[in-house]
Amino acid sequence: MKKILVPTDFSDSAYAAAEVAASIAKKTGARVYLLHVVSLLEYGDEEEISKQLFVMKLVRKRMQEMVEQPFFEGVNVVEALQFDLVHENVNKLAIKNEIDLIVMGSHGASGIKEIIFGSNAQKILRRSQCPVLTIKQKPNSMEFKNIVFASNFNPEVEGAFFAIQRFAEIFEAKIHLLRICTVGEFETTKVCHEKMHHLAKETGLRDYTVNVYNNHTLESGVREFTEMINADLVAIATHGRDGLFHILMGSRTEELVNHEHIPILSMTIRD
Predict the structure, then answer these.
(1) Pairwise CA distance, residues 56 & 59, whole Å
(2) Strand partners, 252
(3) Do 219 and 247 meet the contact criterion of CB atoms below 8 Å apart?
(4) Which residues of the chain fall short of a pLDDT of 70?
C-alpha cells in the first residue's frame, strides 16, 4: 500500500479516520492525502468569489491544525483543497493519484455529513476503484487483528475479496468468513461451508474460520457475531451497479452501518 486518501470535514469522526489512516501509513510507509472539498452546493455558486476565498482561508487553517496532530508525526502528508461536489472530487483524486485505500469518517458537519447512508457516500462507494474504510468513532485498537468478512460467497465476490485480503495481511489478521442465514436468505450449513472453503482455496487464504450464523435479519446477525468474537473490523463486498450500499446477500446495510461502531471496509465488485 502506497497511497491513502482521507476526505475530511474536520469533525470528530474525520479526526478518527485521519488517525486510523496515519496508523496504517506508519505500518506500510504510505503517503496520506488529506482532502477537503468546499461544496459549491453548501457555500454558494462559483460567482461568490469573496465568500469562497474566505472559506478557503478558514479551511487552510483547519487543515494545518489537522496535519500538526501528533498521530501524523513521521507520516508523509499531502494537503488537497478543492471546490466542487464531494463525491466527484474524492473519486477523481483517487483515480488521478492511484489511491490504494480511502479512509473516511461516517458522520460530519459539512460536505461529508452522510458519508455512509447519504447520497455522497453511495456515489463514492459505487464509483470507487479501491477499498473504502469507514470510521464512525476512534477504534479501541488500531490493530485490526480480527476481521469479519460477511457475504453470501457467490463467485462474483472473489475479485473484491482479494483487496480485502491484502488489507488483512497488513495486520497479519485472522479473517472470519461469515454467512448470515435468515428465513428469506437460507442455505444449508454444508453449502455455506463449501462456498467459504472454496473462496479460501481460490484466494490462497490460510488464517481463517468459517461461520454460519442464523438470525431474523442480516444486520442483527452481523452485529451479534462481531460482538461475540470481539471483532475489530467488518469487511463487505458491494455491488456498484445499483447505487445502493448492499452487502452481497441482497439486503441494504444502512441499518447495519448505523448501529455498527467498529470500522467497516468495503470493496466494490466490478462486473
Answers:
(1) 5
(2) 246
(3) no
(4) 39-49, 52, 83-89, 107-127, 239-260, 270-271
φ/ψ of residue 107, rounded to 5:
-145, 155
The whole-angstrom separation of Cα 247 and Cα 256 is: 10
pLDDT tens by residue, 204-213: 999 999 999 9
Closest CA to 112 of 4, 54, 38, 55: 38
**Quick one: how far is CA 170 from the chain centroid?**
16
| List of residues 6+ apart from 191 with CB closer than 8 A | none
Q: Which amino acid is at 115?
A: I
Residue-range domains of the chain with CATH: 3-135 (3.40.50.620), 146-269 (3.40.50.620)
pTM for this structure?
A: 0.84
Query: Rounded to whole angstroms, how far apart are CA atoms 271 and 263?
Result: 26
What is the model's pLDDT at position 19?
Answer: 96
Owner of C-alpha cell 494537503: 79
